Amino acid sequence: MFTPEMMESVKKVEATRAQRLGVEPRRMTADEKDALLKEFHPDYREEAFAEIKVGPNKGQKAPKELVHLLHSNSRLLAEKVDINKVDYDVDVLVIGGGGAGASAAIEANEAGANVMIVTKLRIGDANTMMAEGGIQAADKENDSPVQHYLDAFGGGHFAARPELLRRLVMEAPDAIKWLNELGVMFDKDETGRMITTHGGGTSRKRMHACKDYSGAEIMRTLRDEVLNRQIPVAEFTVAVELIRDDRGQVAGAVLQNLETEDYLVAKAKTVIIATGGAGRMHYQGFPTSNHYGATADGLILGYRMGAPLLYQDTIQYHPTGVAFPSQIFGALVTEKVRSVGAQLVNVDGEAFMHPLETRDVAASGIIRECTARGKGVNTPLGSGVWLDTPMIEMIGGPGTIEKRIPAMLRMYMKYDIDMRKLPILVYPTLHYQNGGLEIGGDGFTKVIDNLLVAGEAVGGIHGRNRLMGNSLLDIIVFGRNAGKAAAAKAKNVELGNMNLDHIQAYAEELKEAGIDTGDVSPLLLPKYARHER
Amino acid sequence: MENMVNVYFFGKKYSVPADLTIMTAMEYAGYTLKRGCGCRHGFCGACATIYRIKGKNELKTCLACQTQVEEGMYVATVPFFPTDKRTYDIEDIKPEQRIMMDLYPEIYSCIGCNACTKACTQDLNVMQYIAYAQRGEFEKCAEESFDCIGCGCCSVRCPAEISHPMVGVLARRLTGKYIAPESKHLTERVEEIHHGDYDQLIEQIMQKPIEEMQELYNNREIEK
């Protein structure tokens, strides 16, 4: 329960609620947003970034923690692994068992390819499972893919790769249809019309949802489909390095059984990196809404083989992570809470900004409120602002919270906070990796023509900020496309002799640059045990 | 000095800060988790856990990531449970009562003990959704089971050896695909796109200079 100091502030929030109701706070102008971002967005904190000294993005910036991994050597340098002793031999190797990986595997299987998934934890242990709010698609009469393009392009600061963004918006309705036909239960009215809402930065209500279990409902359906098709899934089997051949192609991956620590070799004609995000790197000390395995592994694997990164210096901090209680610190409070009516309110009960600005602007606004303006609410781990959830039922009627955001209600009720009666405390949490490996429109990396990337590991689809509901969408659109493209490509790939020469070459490059971190990468799991911290 | 409590992981005693969850307490105790840890926020069901408070008879189930430690807690995680998923082709099956008889006949052996419901970490009425499945009321089964995260605590406790989460998934897929009404606006939009209705418009917007895009974006009309 809240502290007495917090309850004092709650009284102020309650006192202003009636007059705030029905008054939409003003949206910021473009100039106001720019100034706010420059002063308060964590991406602009120079001391949190370092220069990459080796590889294709040499000379560019990335978060220090990521640079550390990029500057570390392969763990295989010190291991004897016979890569010619092949344990799995497939057409398509999918690394990662989240939404992008599962979509890719289903489509590759549909195309007749021999495909397998290897995944660090279990299939479905992924950020997809945790996406709450929804998935965008322009399928209503007042909307169009062009409008969706404009919202996403502007929201991403005009930096998205047009070819990638075109695919995202043009293939969005088909992605929803595909999911619906697999049996995903979207929120619909009795006539079949999708119930759609706004997300931050959308100009049309195009957020489709499955209550606030949108990602979970999608992921468990995709997982069920993968299992029905009897696509092999090697769980607790993590890719620690890609394998090359003497023709410059990717030829598979060295895997490690996470439990026994045995090494395995997967040979493949095409490889899809679908390893997801990096929240567990805790950039700038932020808590994260991400799952346990989100440690940027795929970025390291691809980069070491020469695939360039794009926008690796831009990170999304979700404006509303849990600020209190500490047991769920950093957990996601879905943007949908604001979509259905909750305002952002400071310690004095003032609605200090429009609740549905884009995520980078909203996060910066909350940070400003808690720092420069000193209008945050103190918590044991820092500070936060109120998300005035009781407004939701004043707008939507009693029962709205249980019906539309049951996961949120359940999460807080475990700590005796009834969000129907009391507001909740939030602060930004590390949520999404805007950048990643660069791909062309067909999903292939630009330097290795049988290596593909899909999902959060890709950079460039969204630009320098991502709108709510466009990530669940991108994992489906680009996951499916990667599966199809990999299956087709595999028919024409002849593999040469396999080697790990690129690891040696990378080690040489690090040595020449005078870098020795003393660590190995990829990270695989965050160091949370007390003796490792 | 932090407020500490004594907990027992697999019978071994540790002193841990009282404000931790079972999961973070295990890490405090020194465990590097591989099994039994997934999303860490209550959505994936990886961390199903059984515990009993010292001196009390009741055996409880929970998610390690969502449950605060208590004094005298004896904890055993259940990182894997062999629930039995049957395979099927979603295109070939129909939302008829006999599909449950074909795929999950053991649901008809339910003895009504309600242990599943008591074990549910999401507080779902599990026995009720199994009853709906028995009767072929898939839509109700889907709705009642919707918040299931598949941790498997229900199945661990079931004397009839039912794999409840799998029954729920089947009911939801049947509902989503066959029972919920078609979204005509979606079907039409997909057809328009396949027909090429937006090809020219999207090409045009892709070609626009950034300044013009900024102008369009900053002045776009936002639906109320």
From TrEMBL, chain A:
<keyword id="KW-0560">Oxidoreductase</keyword>
<dbReference type="Pfam" id="PF00890">
    <property type="entry name" value="FAD_binding_2"/>
</dbReference>
<protein>
    <submittedName>
        <fullName>FAD-dependent oxidoreductase</fullName>
    </submittedName>
</protein>
<dbReference type="GO" id="GO:0033765">
    <property type="term" value="F:steroid dehydrogenase activity, acting on the CH-CH group of donors"/>
</dbReference>
<feature type="domain" description="FAD-dependent oxidoreductase 2 FAD-binding">
    <location>
        <begin position="91"/>
        <end position="472"/>
    </location>
</feature>
<dbReference type="InterPro" id="IPR030664">
    <property type="entry name" value="SdhA/FrdA/AprA"/>
</dbReference>
<dbReference type="InterPro" id="IPR027477">
    <property type="entry name" value="Succ_DH/fumarate_Rdtase_cat_sf"/>
</dbReference>
<keyword id="KW-0285">Flavoprotein</keyword>
<dbReference type="InterPro" id="IPR003953">
    <property type="entry name" value="FAD-dep_OxRdtase_2_FAD-bd"/>
</dbReference>
<dbReference type="InterPro" id="IPR036188">
    <property type="entry name" value="FAD/NAD-bd_sf"/>
</dbReference>
<feature type="active site" description="Proton acceptor">
    <location>
        <position position="368"/>
    </location>
</feature>
From TrEMBL, chain B:
<keyword id="KW-0411">Iron-sulfur</keyword>
<dbReference type="GO" id="GO:0046872">
    <property type="term" value="F:metal ion binding"/>
</dbReference>
<keyword id="KW-0408">Iron</keyword>
<dbReference type="GO" id="GO:0051537">
    <property type="term" value="F:2 iron, 2 sulfur cluster binding"/>
</dbReference>
<keyword id="KW-0479">Metal-binding</keyword>
<protein>
    <submittedName>
        <fullName>2Fe-2S iron-sulfur cluster binding domain-containing protein</fullName>
    </submittedName>
</protein>
<feature type="domain" description="2Fe-2S ferredoxin-type">
    <location>
        <begin position="3"/>
        <end position="81"/>
    </location>
</feature>
<dbReference type="InterPro" id="IPR006058">
    <property type="entry name" value="2Fe2S_fd_BS"/>
</dbReference>
<feature type="domain" description="4Fe-4S ferredoxin-type">
    <location>
        <begin position="97"/>
        <end position="130"/>
    </location>
</feature>
<dbReference type="InterPro" id="IPR001041">
    <property type="entry name" value="2Fe-2S_ferredoxin-type"/>
</dbReference>
<dbReference type="InterPro" id="IPR036010">
    <property type="entry name" value="2Fe-2S_ferredoxin-like_sf"/>
</dbReference>
<dbReference type="Pfam" id="PF13510">
    <property type="entry name" value="Fer2_4"/>
</dbReference>
<dbReference type="InterPro" id="IPR017896">
    <property type="entry name" value="4Fe4S_Fe-S-bd"/>
</dbReference>
<feature type="domain" description="4Fe-4S ferredoxin-type">
    <location>
        <begin position="138"/>
        <end position="168"/>
    </location>
</feature>
<dbReference type="InterPro" id="IPR017900">
    <property type="entry name" value="4Fe4S_Fe_S_CS"/>
</dbReference>
